[in-house]
Write a structure and sequence with these properties.
Elements (H helix, E strand, L loop, with lengths): L2 E5 L3 H13 L3 E5 L2 H9 L5 E5 L7 H11 L5 E5 L4 H9 L4 E4 L4 H31 L7 H13 L6 E4 L6 H10 L8 E5 L8 H6 L16 H4 L4 E5 L6 H13 L1 E2 L8 E2 L3 E6 L3 H6 L5 H7 L2 E4 L10 H16 L8 H9 L5 H15 L17 H10 L4 H19 L4 H8 L3 H11 L4 H9 L1
Parallel strand pairs: 1-2, 1-3, 3-4, 4-5, 6-11, 6-12, 7-8, 8-11
Antiparallel strand pairs: 9-10
Amino acid sequence: MNTILVVDDEKSVRESIKLILEYEGYSIHFAENGPQALAKVQGGDTHLVLLDVKMAGMDGLEVLQKIREKNQELPVVMISGHGTIETAVEATKLGAFDFLPKPLDRDKLIITVRNALDRARLTQEYRSLQERVEGRLQLLGESAKIREILALIARVASTDARVLITGENGTGKELVARAIHRQSKRADKQFVEVNCAAIPAELIESELFGHEKGSFTGATAQRIGKFEQANGGTLFLDEIGDMSLNAQAKVLRALEEGKIERVGGTKLISVDVRVLAATNKNIEAAVKNGLFREDLYHRLKVIPIHVPSLREHREDIPVLVRAFIDDVCARNGMAGRIVSPEAMKKLEMRDWPGNVRELRNAIERLVILSPGLEVDMNLLDAPAAGSSGEFEDILGKGGTFQEFKERAEAAFIKRQLDRHRWNISKTAEALDIQRSHLYTKMKRYGLMKEEEEARDVGK
């Protein structure tokens, strides 16, 4: 049952609100003034506050401000018999959910309370989901190298200093960037990521700075760029070493002036963005070879953080393996898996050229494909079932292009069914099609489990 705190110095108002809301199933508590209200909110069992603006001593706006200093998410609805637009605007700026005039309209009160509690619930669900997701996106490890990185993150996160993160592919450079953002004063704002290597050189400026309608062929509408999207928050420029020199010049200008200009635009737009950058390239060598601007390099490298390869901190592999197994099992509703000491030793001795990313993918494959509770290390290097022969068979049968597409589609669906152990719902979700559509495809291509196929042959 949701508990609502009614704060008003008029007993008649408190009682009328109680009469309305208790009938709707809410538990009602009272406070006659600001200090009483703050004391009850401090107790932690309040889900919503109905707060009068005009009270003797500490008024409602002051109470709201003090509540927000301690609790950013508790919904507060202001009520007043002397409400003005200015008061409502001020209350909204301080974080009030809504503003209700006296005398209170019964239906409006019920709807507002319901909406405020629904939003608080959705916010809490979002926070819980975010915590679960962030738990999968944390830099894990107990080695001296990882502890050193975590300590450095803690020191620089609260500042606005730019950070250049270096390291091989798959080492966790993005995780470092996200950790910095998560611990920064910008944590409640956007974390916007741009993979500079994945965007063609001719489109990178539009991606970063946006463009105006008609600024080039295909620009049919105005586009807001990543710098504007990240305003107030953090912009993560991944693979910065692949950015063109022309785009580098514009990024440099944005960092120096705190302003950007959309492609095809004439107006400078102020942006407040903390820039974090990452690369797997040797930027110093790129600077010497004229492939990267030296002035931008020094602008980005205020704080350098190097993420070591997994080969350099093998002692963290058991920690990573356990975390990845728990994550895969939780996401797929599977029982926990066991890794024998011998299997763990094999995992620790591998070179892992793809680093932590490769290890995560390998563990997911082992957990899903291992038939028992103990992971089967024989699956680690086993080729995909029928991988090359199956494809050659599809190509070699000839026929029309339509026939080739149907053979390829049938093989792909069969592979997904096997991967999801013939769970139709999970397979349909993975393929992003309706279950009924999947059943139609299976019937069309004669796809069935091996044991069912065997029964049909024996008939």
